[in-house]
Fold:
Amino acid sequence: MAVGIDVGIKNFAYDSDGFVTPNPQNLKKILKPLARVQRKIPGRQFGSNNRKKSIRWYQVIHERIANRRKGFQHKLSTIYARKYDAICVEKLQLTDMVKNPRFSRSIMDSSWGAFLQKLEYKVNLYVEAESRNTTMHCSRCGNKMPKSLAVRMHRCDKCNLVMDRDCNASINILNKAIPQELRKLTPVEISMRSMKQEDHVL
Structure:
């Protein structure tokens, strides 16, 4: 069984079966105490015990954030790996995405790259699909419906499909990565067919 996954900021993950995983926002929840400790450090005398305590507490908070993030990602990736034989995701250009000052902190807090790495080594078959137009195209009829980031719902004026834009994208990711005719095949059979197609092209 295969599933398409689209990661997001408002919610962490949307899949082609309609399941939505809320974003834990580990950094955002603890940002105020972290900023408070960070402001105290420059005011402490260099080399003093108070400065060392402030630095250590700052490090502890970061460790807690990292551990919570890692625990959440391991739990979610294990759930997907146990439930599905094949997982399809989109190719993310993370270096370009974090350049957007409006979303960079949320993207780094979500740490999608680390989550996808965990999926890749846990699942039987991991497939990446091109991300172009996964949000724009209708997953039912293929009609292109341009929309800005502010528009959270996909509404097709051709087939009248209405659903969350990211859920629609997750279905498109699955359709791009594994075409319908391959869905009933096992991961091994899919890999063998792909190899044969490559040999034929060569």
The radius of gyration is 21 Å. The CA atoms of residues 13 and 19 lie 8 Å apart.
